[in-house]
Amino acid sequence: MKKILFLLPVLALVSCYNAERSCKDFKTGKFKFEFEVNGVKKTTVFERKDNIEIETFEGKTDTSTIRWVSDCEYVLQKKHPKNMAEEKAISMKILTTTKDSYTFEFGMVGSEEKQRGTVFKID
User: Exposed/middle/buried for 115, CB within 10 Å: 0-12, 13-18, 19+?
Assistant: First the structure.
């Protein structure tokens, strides 16, 4: 019984733990995102400045505008979409941060379907 009484406050403290996010550290800089498509590892590199993100993927460069909704959430919109799918905005939410990386959740604006990934700051 004493063990249970001791564990209750500890569990209460642990359940209230909130991971600290330093999202402002990732508003500008050069980043790398690695992901897998059909078992093949792919890498995209992008640079974020103010309200612009320039991405290079498989030798092609593309530019998107950024609209920050909060310190940890923003919306990406391609400046020069090449098809209907690229015309849709992408919602991004930073979930956790470390010194040189962040884990995020993303999906098309208005869609319930979300994916997760980790981005590494390289500059």
Answer: exposed
